[in-house]
Design goal:
Elements (H helix, E strand, L loop, with lengths): L2 E6 L14 H18 L3 E4 L11 H11 L4 E8 L5 H15 L3 E6 L23 H16 L33 E4 L3 H9 L3 E4 L2 E3 L6 H19 L7 E5 L1 E3 L3 H7 L7 E6 L2 E5 L3 E3 L1 H9 L2 H5 L2 E6 L5 H19 L3
Parallel strand pairs: 1-2, 1-13, 2-3, 3-4, 4-5, 5-6, 6-8, 8-13, 9-12
Antiparallel strand pairs: 7-11, 10-11
């Protein structure tokens, strides 16, 4: 059995074929899709976060709205770039969103990836400390965020407050108990997957990672996950970790499916997402259900994960994406033992 969710990149554009012409379209359709996904039995609704782009950027209003309109589905991100975040304020936002959803937030964070502008975090008022890289800054902020999620008081109370204070040092509010255990780290390398395990975060591994061996993508990703699990065990954490992988998977069951995805890329590719850092990009899966089941059964990383996030073409609208997700649940998941 596996949890199955969708991952939306949240694109919009005034392109005549897009169902998401504006940011408002994307936000409102994201809510509608999450509600529909819960109704068909999907386990999770996850959203990418990108700044300075015609994509979703501020996740907490969206996650809160989805949390208020649903009752069972997990809601999360994949991922929030911590280079742009104020960890203290983020604790308050995350706590509020988690309480609104009744404890269903699954928050994916990371040090971030190349963005639309040069050193965009500077425009948000942030800069690495002396001797830090921007990646170091992102990881430092992540640890600050994790520390404050524990809900331990640290701030000296004002002796003349506006409202009476409880005794002792004050913590950030609202505090949501248990949220600390539902934070995920998006790792692009083996080393950062191990770091995530050491710091008791669940693991998100996407459709790309840094190429560290030249092997096929799914094998490199499976090796990354195994290293993560070994590091988790070595760290002695008391709970079981969770691991998600993202995949572009389309069951070709209608002529429209074949039109859209019948020519999808069916092989891994290699390229550069950062200077001098070669990355491997996983292939898309698009085939008739029986063939799809055979291909996915050979994906070693999927076998190692407990959660699969299906990347969706959000610009094609809610109805078509419900069809895409329903096709996986009905025609593919049972044959793989996911359902």
């Amino acid at each position: 059995m596996k949890k199955i969710g969708f991952l939306s990149f949240g694109h919009w554009s005034a392109h005549p074929s897009y169902k998401t012409q504006t940011a408002g379209d994307t936000l409102l359709q994201s809510i509608d899709l999450a509600v529909a996904a819960e109704e068909i039995g999907l386990d999770g609704a996850y959203f990418r976060v990108h700044h300075f782009a015609a994509q979703l950027a501020s996740p907490f209003p969206l996650l809160s709205a989805i949390g208020a309109k649903t009752s069972k589905i997990e809601i999360g991100t994949g991922v929030i770039d911590m280079r742009y975040e104020n960890p203290m304020y983020m604790v308050e936002d995350a706590g509020a969103a988690d309480l609104i959803s009744g404890g269903r937030l699954q928050l994916g964070i990371s040090r971030g990836s190349p963005e639309q502008v040069i050193e965009g975090w500077h425009h948000f008022g942030y800069a690495p400390l002396p001797g830090e890289t921007d990646a170091d800054m992102g990881r430092r902020k992540a640890l600050e965020f994790l520390a404050q999620l524990k809900g331990v008081g640290f701030a000296e109370p004002n002796p003349y407050p506006m409202f009476p204070n409880p005794p002792g040092l004050l913590r950030l509010e609202p505090h949501s108990e248990g949220l600390r255990e539902r934070i995920w780290w998006g790792a692009a390398s083996n080393a950062t997957a191990v770091w995530a395990a050491e710091n008791a975060m669940n693991l998100q591994s996407s459709t790309l990672k840094f190429d560290e061996s030249g092997k096929p993508f799914h094998i490199q990703q499976a090796e990354q996950i195994r290293l993560y699990k070994e590091a988790w065990k070595k760290a002695g954490h008391r709970r079981e970790p969770r691991v998600s992988v993202s995949r572009s998977i389309f069951a070709l069951v209608t002529d429209l499916d074949r039109l859209y995805f019948g020519q999808a890329k069916s092989a891994d590719s290699f390229g550069y997402i950062e200077p001098e850092k070669r990355a491997v990009f996983g292939k898309s899966y698009a085939a008739e259900p029986d063939q799809l089941i055979k291909e996915l059964a050979r994906d070693e990383a999927i076998q190692e994960a407990d959660t699969v996030l299906l990347t969706i073409p959000n610009t094609l609208g809610v109805d078509y994406n419900v069809h895409v997700l329903s096709s996986i649940l009905k025609h593919v998941a049972p044959g793989l033992g996911w359902r």
